Amino acid sequence: MASTSKKGTEKKQVGISYWSKDKCTCPVCNKSFEREIMRSGNGRMIAGNLTDELHRNFEPSAKYGLIYPLIYEIGTCPFCYTSLFWNDFKEKITQEDSDKIYEHSDKRKQACETIFPYFNLKKERTLFDGAAMYYLALMTYDDFGPYMLPTMKQAILSLRLAWLTKDINLRCANHNYDLISQMFYSKALFFYQQAVIAETSKEEKSSTLANMGPDMDKNYGWDGVIYLCGLLEYKYGQQEDIQLRLKKLNESKTAIARIFGLGKSSKNKPGPLLEHARNLYDNLSKLVNDENF
To answer: Which is the most buried residue in 66, 123, 199, 241, by most CB within 10 A?
Structure first.
């Protein structure tokens, strides 16, 4: 019997995540729920390449297989389906926003079930459950005022959702998650551009967000936001109105050149981001020149 108990303990110790002793209190319904936290170390996270979307891939390990660290960055109340970045559970929410978020609880749940049917919030999360939590968060932030910087957060959430649903499609093809991923890329493009507009008009202080990711391994800040605006326009922007597309691509090229000082000394810029920015600038220049020709 002691031997069985020991084996059970050893099995628990090598898990990917654990339940925190400290519960999280939902600022909307005031109910407490358990917080799941990913364990670190012991070969769980084997960093792979950094994509042009500033997304860090992770290699599967012999012990843990494929893991998705991003899915542990969001917390979701299983009672009212309020979903937030973990740090935002500690923020003070206005009564007006709290009432609105609570009122839309069922709406969020039903909308989430159309894309992620049978998602589960009360067990150790899977890639599928984690993606569902991100979608619930995307809808939750829709009900916040500018003080919570919702537009910038929705941009990050949408881009991460595009990555996560692409991963779901790789593991479970023929369920249209490739199309859903494209939808979230379009949303990411919209929110990133809106965040820049809100910053420029001073309606929302997007650039003051402490960590703009977009992934969890490095914060590329506002430079990363400007870069992603151009990259997402280049890769996922509309192509029906060619003149409008060329106008936006030209604007992106100018913004990237100005931010990164291309052609000048850029020693103070992050190496990987500068390299990706140069590649994007070259691609934008070629595309604009070809279209104009």
So the answer is: 199
- Going from the C-alpha of 8 to that of each of 11, 77, 96, 167, the distances in angstroms are 5, 29, 47, 31
Task: Work out the number of other CB atoms within 10 angstroms of the CB of residue 251.
Answer: 14
Tell me the C-alpha distance between 139 and 143, whole Å: 7
Of the two residues 3 and 169, the one the predictor is more confident about is 169
The residue among 16, 60, 40 whose CA lies nearest residue 167 is 60
Mean pLDDT for the chain overall: 89
| Dihedral sign computed on CA atoms, order 77, 81, 82, 83 | positive
Span 80-100, average pLDDT = 97
Q: How far apart are CA 153 and CA 166, in angstroms?
A: 20
- The angle at the Cα of 270, spanning 265 to 275, to the nearest 5 degrees, equals 75
- 91-111: b (≥16 Cβ within 10 Å) or e: eebeeebbeebeebbeebbeb
* 118 φ/ψ sector (left φ>0, alpha ψ -120 to 50, else beta): left
Query: Residue 162's closest CA among 231, 224, 91, 226?
Result: 231
The residue behind tokens 């000082």 is 261
Q: Output the pLDDT for position 265.
A: 46
Average pLDDT over residues 67-83: 96
Q: Measured between alpha carbons, how far is residue 117 from residues 88, 104, 113, 114 in Å? A: 26, 18, 4, 6
CA dist 114 and 273 (Å) reads: 36
**């020709």: which residue's tokens?**
293
Query: How many H helices and E strands in the chain?
Result: 9, 8
Distance CA 230, CA 284 (A): 9
Higher-pLDDT residue of 156, 288: 156
Please confirm whether the linkage preceding 214 is cis (ω < 30° from 0).
yes
